[in-house]
Design goal:
The structure holds two protein chains of two kinds.
Chain A (H helix, E strand, L loop, with lengths): L4 H11 L3 H15 L4 H8 L3 H11 L13 E9 L2 E6 L2 E8 L5 E5 L5 E3 L2 H14 L1 H5 L4 E7 L3 E6 L6 H11 L1
Parallel strand pairs in A: 1-6
Antiparallel strand pairs in A: 1-2, 2-3, 3-4, 4-5, 6-7
Helix pairs in contact in A: 1-2, 1-7, 3-4
Chain B lengths: L2 H21 L7 H7 L4 H10 L6
Classes of the chains: A alpha+beta, B mainly alpha.
């Protein structure tokens, strides 16, 4: 790791994150600066692309094969009828969530395993997190935002989870470099 | 062609258009997953990927 120990300690202190998270962020920042791709970085860290992408988004990192999209693909769970939620891409249903016989809800990508939850939102959130992690394989795009339509309120974001302190993290990393 | 068929065809074209935008110049794509997500035949997805400068992993 070419960022010195001092550097990640500074980042951890400044951003108020765990040492481990700061170390990974510094390491990724070094790789990005060295011109590595996100796939190379993921393989060096032995993490999935989805996990590295979360770091890139939170800490404002750009890789040769990844720059945060200003307009992510928006996917919205809708409730066509009681006990049923569906997620569509332009008219094709790709995922569904259904009432699980009085035991909450279960959600799945069509043709794949169910994710259960004590209510519809929890089941959809679990599935959405997995879909967001695999977004490149599933949608051909890195940046996707999956929400649910809530009557009278608008949209509730399910995945990815937003880092509320992203600005602070990015400043901490910039100062230390 | 019935109105229903026209609508279904338009929906397919829209999905193909979205897919084409997203896969442009992307390497290592998983055509089988994309075919499922976009509800399009695998062969068609492979064509869209290669025509838009992408490649399958």
């Amino acid at each position: 790791m070419d960022s010195s120990g001092r550097s990640w300690r500074q980042v951890a202190a400044e951003a108020e994150v765990s040492d481990e998270r700061a170390m990974v962020a510094c390491y990724l920042a070094d790789l990005a600066r060295a011109g590595k791709s996100m796939n190379e970085a993921a393989s060096l860290l032995r993490k999935g692309r989805g996990e590295v992408r979360t770091y890139a988004r939170d800490w404002g990192l750009r890789f040769t094969d990844y720059q945060t999209a200003p307009q992510p693909l928006q996917l919205i769970w809708k409730k066509p009828k009681r006990g049923l939620w569906t997620l569509e891409i332009e008219g094709g249903v790709i995922a569904e969530a259904i009432a699980n016989g009085g035991l909450g809800y279960k959600a799945r990508r069509i043709g794949h395993d169910w994710h259960v939850g004590s209510n519809a939102e929890i089941a959809m959130r679990r599935l959405s997190a997995e879909m967001e992690r695999d977004s490149l394989d599933l949608f051909g795009v890195d940046d996707v935002v999956i929400s649910m339509q809530i009557e009278g309120v608008g949209r509730g974001r399910l995945a990815p989870t937003e880092e509320p302190r992203a600005h602070r993290l990015q400043s901490a990393l910039a100062v230390s470099q | 062609m019935s109105a229903r068929e026209v609508k279904a065809r338009d929906e397919v074209l829209r999905r193909e258009g979205i897919l084409a935008t997203h896969v442009r110049n992307r390497a290592g794509l998983n055509a089988a997953s994309l075919a499922q997500s976009y509800a399009l035949p695998l062969e068609r997805v492979q064509q869209i990927i290669s025509r838009n400068g992408g490649s399958c992993g």
